[in-house]
Design a protein that fits this description.
6-stranded mixed sheet; about 35% helix; single chain
Length: about 525
């Protein structure tokens, strides 16, 4: 038994572990009435009971034997596709609007909240896979992917197999899958957790988005640790304002979407984190940060161009940390990971040693190798706060000018566009504004919103170029050897979205290809 498993069992979870660890590679069909009752729903006596072999919310993914959940979404209503689901072989429909009379042989089950029912049924269908794992959920506007990667690496110090689910992909230990969203829908999530159980995984670290909390994708999951990083402006097209945004994030820790996490880790340097700390006084909460009262505290910070070093103090000890991750905000990410390792019962000193070999996350302050002697960095920063953090860091370690290429996504919060332009101009010597993922919105409209953040005195320090490849090319050609170019907004992504079309586009690959073309073309010119 690994130390990770021992830590899970010694914390009172042995009872949960009594469920069979060896499950079949494919979920066994289950009787519909049993599944429905597991979600607290009534199975109509007049309906015929049958085996369910699959759960679905997309009628196109229905196969014979499926239980279809008709969910009312933001863009479409699942009830419109009930007939298609039935034609494809659905044996049951969970809906808030069952017909009073129907001539089909499928069972209609009424649910006041089909999303919550989906989450409950999913856990039962896949035999409660979350209860067999040490489950860590990480939420926050910025840093989720890096912190998830750090925690996964530290948990592996114990010798156990640890997987992860998040923006850059789904690591199931024995295989990896590209991510189709940061936090999957409840039935997909439970299936992935079930597969990790099959692969004898002992722990899973997952990013938990605000959308996932609000849409009950993580409802009733048994989180051992919940981690709160920060809250800055983002997704207000969905949440409305910052208070509503915070209220959604808060639900992960208060038990409003199920049981509370057994242990909570919170950033003491973030104003919203402070609110959580005040609310959870006296409960099992561990804070981290640079604040004097943080339980896991960083101090004596040393920031260099190739590494960061700092002292860390925790309730039972003190050590010196050296990490390849650069910048103050990455030190905060490291503190979050160490605090999580600490509350999970790991040896913090061993974790500190492990940090020396952590190389980072794709698309997160990733240095792009090139043959034209330029410092080119690709980062996922797509909020004003994240852009400020990235540029501030580069200003500290760059002798020459700092140049940024950035854009703003279409069909998203228009209010943050001017703020991102302000952040770019305030922290760079020159900015190239370009497309990100325009989606169905005209690039001219996106640019107009961005221009609201540009003062007349700064107009000569920013240029708007619709074609992202061209903007990157111009940025590279404008740079001198001691300059630094930040290409922000897409990070690890390998595509751009235009309307309903997705086209290949990888900032890292494009930057490398353009640097090679510039090298072959001779000297750079402004």
């Amino acid at each position: 038994m690994s130390a990770l498993k021992e830590n899970k069992d010694s914390s009172g979870e042995g009872k949960k572990k009594s469920r069979s660890k060896k499950a079949s590679k494919k979920a066994k069909p289950r009787m519909m009435s049993s599944l429905v009752k597991s979600a607290g729903l009534k199975f109509p006596k007049k309906e015929s009971d049958t085996l369910v072999s699959r759960l679905a919310i997309d009628s196109r993914r229905v196969i014979p034997g499926s239980l279809f959940f008709a969910i009312e979404g933001l863009k479409t209503d699942g009830n419109k596709f009930v007939d298609e689901a039935i034609s494809r072989g659905a044996v049951g429909i969970v809906t808030a609007r069952p017909p009073k009379l129907h001539g089909s042989k499928v069972a209609y089950i009424k649910s006041e909240d089909p999303r919550l029912s989906l989450a409950r049924v999913s856990r039962a269908f896949f035999d409660f896979p979350d209860e067999k794992l040490l489950l860590v959920g990480v939420t926050g506007t910025n840093g989720k992917t890096t912190v998830t990667g750090l925690i996964k690496d530290l948990l592996r110090v114990s010798g156990g197999k640890v997987g992860s689910l998040g923006t850059v992909g789904y690591d199931l230990v024995q295989r990896s899958l590209p991510s189709f969203r940061t936090t999957p829908e409840a039935h997909d999530l439970c299936e992935l957790l079930s597969q990790m159980n099959d692969f004898e995984c002992e722990g899973v670290v997952m990013e938990v988005s605000s959308h996932a909390i609000d849409q009950l994708r993580v409802a009733e999951l048994a989180f051992d640790v919940g981690v709160f990083l920060n809250l800055t402006r983002d997704h207000l097209d969905y949440h409305g304002d910052m208070e509503q945004y915070f209220a959604v994030k808060r639900r992960l820790f208060t038990g409003e979407v199920g049981a509370k996490p057994k242990r909570v880790v919170v950033n003491a340097d973030d104003s919203y984190g402070r609110r959580l700390i005040e609310e959870f006084k006296g409960e099992d909460l561990t804070s981290f940060g640079f604040a004097e009262d943080a339980d896991v505290r960083g101090l004596n910070l040393q920031l260099e161009s190739a590494f960061s070093a700092f002292d860390v103090v925790w309730p039972e000890g003190k050590g010196r940390v050296t990490t390849n991750l650069i910048g103050r905000y990455n030190v905060s990410n490291v503190l979050a990971a160490l605090a999580t390792a600490y509350v999970s019962g790991l040896d913090v000193n061993r974790c500190i040693e492990r940090l020396k070999t952590f190389e980072g996350i794709p698309g997160r302050m990733q240095l792009i190798e090139n043959s034209i002697n330029l410092k080119i960095v690709v980062d996922y920063a797509h909020t004003a706060d994240a852009l400020t953090n990235a540029l501030s860091l580069l200003n500290e370690i760059t002798r020459g000018k700092v140049i940024v290429v950035f854009g703003c996504g279409g069909d998203r919060d228009r209010g943050k566009r001017s703020l991102m332009a302000q952040a770019a101009l305030a922290n760079s010597d020159f900015s190239w504004a370009t497309s990100d993922n325009p989606r169905t919105e005209a690039i001219e409209q996106i640019f107009d919103d961005m221009k609201e953040g540009v003062q007349s005195s700064d107009a000569d320090r920013i240029e708007f170029i619709a074609d992202r490849r061209r903007a990157i090319e111009l940025a590279l050609k404008s740079a001198k050897p001691e300059d630094c170019i930040l290409i922000a907004g897409k990070g690890h992504e390998t595509f751009q979205e235009f309307g309903d079309t997705v086209v290949p586009f990888d900032d890292r690959q494009v930057a490398y290809e353009l640097s090679e073309l510039i090298r072959l073309g001779g000297e750079q010119s402004r």
